Amino acid sequence: MLVGHQPKDFLLAVSGLTVSFDGFKAVNDLSFYVEENEIRVIIGPNGAGKTTVLDLICGKTKATSGSIQFRGKELTKMKENEIVQTGVGRKFQTPSVFEDLTVFENLEISFPRGRTVFGSLTFQRDQPVKQRVEEVAEMIFLKDKLDTYASELSHGQKQWLEIGMLLIQDPDLLMLDEPVAGMSVSERAKTAELLNRIIKNRSVLVIEHDMKFVEDIAHKVTVLHQGQILSEGTMEKVKNDPKVIEVYLGH
Amino acid sequence: MVINSRFFNRSELIGFIVLAAVLFVILPLSLDVFRLNLVAKYLTYAFVAIGLVLCWGYGGILSLGQGVFFGLGGYCMAMFLKLEASSVENTKIQSTPGIPDFMDWNQITSLPLFWQPFHSLSFTILAIILVPGLFALIIGTAMFKRRVGGTYFAIITQAVAAILTILIVGQQGYTGGINGMTDLRTLKGWDIRPDHAKVILYFVEVVLLFACIGIAQFIRLTKLGRILVAMREQEDRVRFSGYSVANFKIFAFCMAAIFAAIGGAMFALNVGFMSPSFVGIVPSIEMVIYTAVGGRMSIFGAVWGSILVNFAKTSLSESFPQLWLFGLGALFIAVVLAFPNGLSGIWADYVQPRIDRLFAARKPKPAAWTDDSVADGAPAE
């Protein structure tokens, strides 16, 4: 699919995106557009290619063909760290935090300064850094755990810490892969509250299975099935789409 | 708040004082020159071990080819010393006087071009740092930019060690071959062989060792040190925090190479020769064992590991030469299985708590510096 002129207000424009692993097309000619400040949820059955889409956007997986434009910049040709520096943040499905470092140090590493070898040698833990780390730590309910090693945190706290690490990067596009998976009911509620607070002033792309959670936050829902879009639109529209009910919501 | 305001925390400060006392005072006073010179030889491996702490312990990059850099540094130094020992007066019985003896034996009639700059001591000192540094940069860039890591990287470093050994042995007209460069005599006219020179060289080496410890400790305390730890655990998370992981790995690998090269240069000076038997696969693996035994997360532990394993090697191989290799293998397996953090881990788990309790028992009120060390949040050894 070829898309000609893009209206300027799309933050992310994915068009004709295809990736094949040994002939298997995990994502097949996929196109979708995310606007500024939009919260988009991707749902779909297992193996639909949801995580692969995030992998492609953040550069973890290289696309076979197609394009991903972020603010007019072509992401498919950039390295992962360059993509991060243009303003795309990614949270992984399983919490990936640095267990041998403290909460403070985890957040400090994500602070967007001194990202080169020389820059990190001369990096100073000054007032702005400390202030921002404390600010974010408060937001993610870990203010009194700054000196705790991340290995001692609970599963839910690790998820929050990783969300905090993204927050401190201040990305324009935040991608979250199942942010409430494996959380207790009370942690889920707190996370929803946290997400509702941090999604202001940025676009968010979320993969989630928890339909109640999706209904709460989504502006628009994209349903993926076998690497292609099955349906797209408001939650109301998607929920009543017979194709969606058949492959995903029905069971 | 969490601030590493001091260079060493309390247990590191104790480690520093103990090591400085042993190396600067106790050993020079208690050992004869022969034994002190042996310690100097052991300590050349401590440079390598410190580099491995940064590169392997912190960065998670296991290099089984540190002998390459040890050798490059050693050969650079040895080339300078050999040229000085091969003056026209010293070599007038050769068919071509003024070139190293092994060249003469191999029918080489003039000094090869790449040997020429080694007439200059300043060039040699630069070369000791830059040749291994650049070589590590090339290997590191080629491997890490392509995301080659872990076991594959370790195997490739082994291959490089094997290749360099074969090259040195094969090109004996240019390198001295399997015998290496022997009969090194003077440094700028100052004889390095007599006892008093050995003592001075020992102290020069210890000073350099402490300089390297200082540099390693500095790196460890910067954000770069924490990024190395982060990288070892969650490489992707570091990458998706906006860092170029390859560049950090290259840096750690180059630093380890430079430390190893300084060790090699001091080896040539203290021991008086350099040969391919310190370059290949076996010595490279032994260097990793020194680090593992001492504790791969501890700079001071690595120094102790180098001294103690080499001491054991000397004493055991004097009496049971065949047994030594089995002993070394058993030691490595024991450390990996039972004490993954080596001697420094044993110290931190068993000895340190007792000392702390002793302090606490003597002083009902904790001293001010004990408070600090709790608050300063530096990663515990």
Return Rg of chain B in Å. Answer: 22 Å
What oligomerization state is this entry in?
A: heterodimer
State the largest interface. A-B, 39 and 30 residues
Along the chain, the helix and strand elements of chain B come as HHHHHHHEEHHHHHHHHH
CATH architecture of chain A: 3-Layer(aba) Sandwich
Compute the number of strand runs of chain A.
10
Largest sheet of chain B: 2 strands, antiparallel
Beta-strand residue fraction of chain B = under 5%
The spatial strand order of the largest sheet of chain A comes to 6-7-8-3-9-10
CATH topology tier name of chain A: Rossmann fold
Shape of chain A: globular
Which sequence of SSEs, written as H and E, runs from N to C of chain A? EEEHEEHEHHHHEHEHEEHH
Average residue-wise pLDDT of chain A: 89
Any overview of this molecule?
The complex is a heterodimer of chains A (251) and B (381). The two termini of chain A are 32 Å apart. Chain A has helices spanning 50-58, 80-86, 103-110, 117-121, 127-139, 155-169, 185-198, 211-217, 235-239, 242-249, and strands at 10-21, 24-35, 39-43, 65-70, 73-74, 88-91, 173-177, 203-207, 220-225, 228-233. Helices cover 36% and strands 25% of the residues of chain A. Chain A has a six-stranded mixed β-sheet, sandwiched between helices. Chain A has a four-stranded antiparallel β-sheet with strand order 2-1-4-5, covered by helices on one side. Chain B is mainly α. Chain B has one domain. Chain B has 16 helices and two strands. In chain B, a hairpin with a 2-residue loop joins strand 1 (186-187) and strand 2. The longest helix of chain B has 27 residues, at 195-221. Residues 365-381 of chain B have low confidence and may be disordered. The A-B interface holds A 58, 60, 79-81, 84-85, 89-90, 92, 96-102, 104-106, 108-110, 112, 114-117, 120-123, 125, 130, 146-147, 162, 165, 169 and B 1-4, 219, 222-224, 226-227, 229-230, 232-234, 236-245, 247-248, 251, 377, 379.
